[in-house]
Write a structure and sequence with these properties.
283 residues, alpha/beta, Rossmann fold, seven-stranded parallel β-sheet, globular, binds nicotinamide-adenine-dinucleotide
C-alpha cells in the first residue's frame, strides 16, 4: 500500500535550483509540511536527494532544470507555480573557480542566477521570499562604483556584453567568480526594488565563507594551502557547515525577517574582517 503521510492541500511551495549540499540543507530546514520542487541539472542528484528526503517525510517533486538555459529556468518557475503558492525560492546552482572556465562561471553563477531571479519574479506569491547563495568572494574584488551602477540596471541577457564583464571577469576563473558573486548581490537589490517588490516578495543573498561540501573539497584539493591559511586567519578558526548556512537561511526566508530585503548576509567565520583589518592577505 502506498501511504499518504500528509493530506493537506494548497501547500506553500519551496523551489530549489541546485540540489547540492547547501541547497538541500536549507530546504530540509524550512520545508516540513510544504511542497518541495527540487531542480538540478543532474538526474542522479535529483534521484538521490528526492529518495533521501521522501524517506524522511518530505513532500518532494523533482524537475531537471539547466540554470544556463533561460527557457528551462522559466519552465521550472512555471512548474513551481502550478504546484501551489510559491512562498520560497532558493538558488544554489554554481561552479567554483577551480572547477570551471571564466565563461562557465559567468554563465552559471551570474547569468544563470539572473535568469532564475527574473523567472521567479514572475511567479512569487505575496509574502514569499527568495535567497541566492553568493560567496565571501564577493567581498574580495571591489567593483568600481560606476560599474556597479551600470550592472545593477543591466538586463540579464545583456550582462555578458558589459565591457567590465567582457574584459575583466573573463580574464581568469578567480576574477570571474569574485565578480559573479558580487553581481548576485546587485541582482537581489534590483529585484527587491522592482519585480519582486511588485509581487510583495522579498529577496536576499547569503555569502558563505569556507563551508565543507563536496564542491569545497574540489577547491581544497586544488588550493589547500590557501584555504588553510584563510581558516587559520579567521576569528572562528574553522570551516563552516551547510547546516549553519541553513540556520541563517531559515531566518532570512522566514516571517521574522519581513523587514529584510535586498541585502546580503556574510557568514564567513570572520575571514573578510581579517582581510579588512590587515590580518590576512589573499595570495
Ligand atoms: N562550499 C563552499 O565553501 C562555498 C562557499 C561559498 C559559496 N559557495 C556557493 O554555494 C553554492 C552551493 O555550493 P555547494 O557547496 O552546496 O555546491 P554543490 O556542488 O553541492 O551544489 C551545487 C549544485 O548545483 C548543481 N548544478 C550545477 N550546474 C547546474 C546547472 N547548470 N543547472 C542546475 N543545477 C546545476 C549541481 O549539480 C549541484 O547539485 C554555489 O553557488 C557555490 O559557489 C560555496
Amino acid at each position: 500500500m502506498s501511504m499518504i503521510f500528509d493530506r493537506s492541500e494548497n501547500k506553500a511551495v519551496v523551489a530549489l535550483i541546485g540540489a547540492g549540499s547547501m541547497g538541500t540543507a536549507i530546504v530540509r530546514r524550512i520545508a516540513t509540511g510544504k511542497k518541495i520542487l527540487l531542480g538540478d541539472v543532474s538526474e542522479a542528484v535529483l534521484e538521490r536527494v528526492s529518495n533521501d528526503m521522501t524517506r524522511c517525510g518530505y513532500d518532494v517533486e523533482t524537475m531537471i532544470v539547466n540554470a544556463l538555459d533561460k527557457d528551462s529556468v522559466e519552465a521550472f518557475a512555471r512548474q513551481a507555480a502550478q504546484l501551489g503558492p510559491v512562498m520560497y525560492f532558493v538558488d544554489t546552482a554554481g561552479a567554483s573557480p577551480n572547477q570551471a572556465s571564466p565563461e562557465h562561471i559567468v554563465n552559471l553563477d551570474m547569468i544563470g542566477t539572473g535568469y532564475a531571479v527574473d523567472a521567479f519574479g514572475q511567479v512569487m506569491a505575496a509574502g514569499g521570499a527568495g535567497l541566492l547563495i553568493s560567496s565571501q568572494a564577493a567581498y574580495m574584488y571591489p567593483i568600481p562604483h560606476e560599474v556597479e551602477s551600470q550592472l545593477v540596471n543591466t538586463p540579464t541577457v545583456q550582462l555578458a556584453q558589459v565591457p567590465f564583464i567582457r574584459d575583466v571577469a573573463m580574464q581568469n576563473s578567480g576574477l570571474a567568480y569574485m565578480i559573479a558573486k558580487r553581481v548576485n548581490h546587485l541582482q537581489a537589490q534590483r529585484a527587491a526594488a522592482t519585480t519582486w517588490r511588485e509581487r510583495h516578495a522579498r529577496i536576499n543573498t547569503i555569502s558563505p565563507g569556507v563551508v565543507v561540501t563536496p564542491l569545497a573539497y574540489d577547491e581544497f584539493n586544488a588550493n589547500g594551502e590557501g584555504y588553510q591559511r584563510m581558516i587559520d586567519a579567521s576569528a572562528a578558526r574553522r570551516a563552516g557547515t551547510s547546516d549553519e548556512i541553513a540556520e541563517a537561511a531559515a531566518f532570512l526566508l522566514g516571517e521574522h525577517a519581513a523587514f529584510i530585503t535586498g541585502t546580503d548576509l556574510l557568514i564567513d567565520g570572520g575571514v573578510i574582517a581579517s582581510i579588512r583589518a590587515g590580518q590576512y592577505r589573499l595570495g
